[in-house]
Amino acid sequence: PGRGALAVLGGDLMVRVADGRLLPYANLDIAATAPCAVVAAEAVTRLLPSYASVHRGAGVLSQHCTRAYEQARAAVARFVGCRPGDQVVFTRNSTDALNLLAHVVPASTPVLTFLGEHHANLLPWRQTVHLPLPRTPGEAVAAVDEALRRHGPALVAVTATSNVTGEVWPVAEIARVARWHGARVVVDAAQLAAHGPVSLADLDVDYLVLSGHKLYAPFGAGVLAGRADWMDAARPYLSGGGASRHVGSDGTVQWALGPGRHEAGTPNLVGAVAMAAVCEAVTATGWAALTHHEQQLLERLDAGLATVAGVHRLVLFGPAHPRLGIAAFAVAGLDSAEVARRLADDHGIGVRDGLFCAHPLTRHLLASAPTRLPGTAVRASLGAGTTREQVDRLVAAVARIAAQAPSQRPASRDIA
Ligand code: PMP
After folding, report:
1. Among protein residues, the one whose CA lies closest to atom 8 of ligand 1
2. Rounded distance, CA 406 to CA 192, Å?
């Protein structure tokens, strides 16, 4: 299951665990970086023998590559629901895209952002208004409304889906409130873009960002998509060839308009083409099969973890709120790094531990649990290529590890 929806590489990797057994590797860290899709690898393989300069040469290969790059841009624009007047700028990743947007935001425009954001959507902004963590999606919308009343037209920077909890944020509702106040919205779609439809037009937001490496394409390509006016008004994010239309003999510059203004230097054609191949494949087949597969696995994972004594799930909006295939948890009495190490070394399962580049949110979730938890958490995440067998192995392994936690061992008087 899942392979038909979006086949990925690496599913047959084996790993030797501490007791000497050779096990199929279970990559359950897909929210950090997804495995490479077969369509992405094929697109790269087709391109490599005939690649040359983009936007520079007159030769037939340069023409071919320039066309491929601009076709990739158009495919991404369709994937993210660009409207007339929107543009797609290729960046290195979501972090780069958000820093680019922070660079073009007019100096007088404050940026509202919740403290639950990934650091990529928390740290780049200059004039930041930090909103406290909401307890419900309704509280999030009300907080934006209230802040916009005080701060006037601002840029609201919000994630579509938390990389810690997998919870879906009320972006369309926030966008409605923002519109009412004449504010703009940027959506961090780094997580959502790989699991469900995300559209500038449907959400009625101004900008969105995503990362190719989370979208089943290789590293090194990301996107900032959205309205062109601030981007065309600001100085280029990077200065150099491609960003400049004319440089006079006295050094004066006329900068280019459009996406090229912020894409100085030779662009990452391979990354753009790979990412576009995934976008086209998903646009053609739709998300339904993949979403269904992931939701079934998530339910199985949730149900399994719920049976393990000592495991505490981390969610902000409560267990009934819609989530993507992410499950963050901590085991009472066990260091999360130790849990992750044992999952890897003893069970051949890859997860992530720590504070997930969202320190305020993860610390808040750990501190507000009813039980005393360690200072960091474990995160398992699913996607295309994840199997039921991997989910079951994870649950069984966590149960074995949790059973050894000091707090889960019976007290000595109980043993008798
Ligand atoms: N936002 C979210 C929600 C993310 O999950 C991530 C990656 N963990 C980022 C932004 C940053 O993405 P990248 O590291 O590809 O720049």
Report:
1. 32
2. 37
The residue extents of the domains of the chain are: 14-30+287-413, 40-46+76-281
Task: Identify which of 29, 119, 168, 211 to mutate to test ligand 1's pocket (most ligand atoms within 8 A of the CB).
Answer: 211
Catalytic, out of 65, 82, 279, 357: 357
**Residues found in the chain:** 416
ipTM surpasses cut 0.95: yes
Q: Which CATH number fits domain 40-46+76-281: 3.90.950.20, 3.40.640.10, 3.40.50.300, 3.30.200.20?
A: 3.40.640.10
* Residue 279 known to be catalytic: no
Which residue, judged by its Cα, is nearest atom 5 of ligand 1? 163
Single pTM value for the model: 0.96
Q: Whose CA is nearest to atom 6 of ligand 1?
A: 190
The pLDDT profile of the chain, 416 residues, written as one tens digit per residue, is: 344 569 999 999 999 999 999 999 999 999 999 999 999 999 999 999 999 999 888 899 999 999 999 999 999 999 999 999 999 999 999 999 999 999 999 999 999 999 999 999 999 999 999 999 999 999 999 999 999 999 999 999 999 999 999 999 999 999 999 999 999 999 999 999 999 999 999 999 999 999 999 999 999 999 999 999 999 999 999 999 999 999 999 999 999 999 999 999 999 999 999 999 999 999 888 899 999 999 999 999 999 999 999 999 999 999 999 999 999 999 999 999 999 999 999 999 999 999 999 999 999 999 999 999 999 999 999 999 999 999 999 999 999 999 988 766 554 444 43
* Radius of gyration of the chain measured on its C-alpha atoms: 23
Q: Which residue among 186, 192, 210, 214 is best mutated to probe the pocket of ligand 1, counting the most ligand atoms within 8 A of its Cβ?
A: 214
Q: Which CATH architecture has domain 14-30+287-413?
A: Alpha-Beta Complex (3.90)
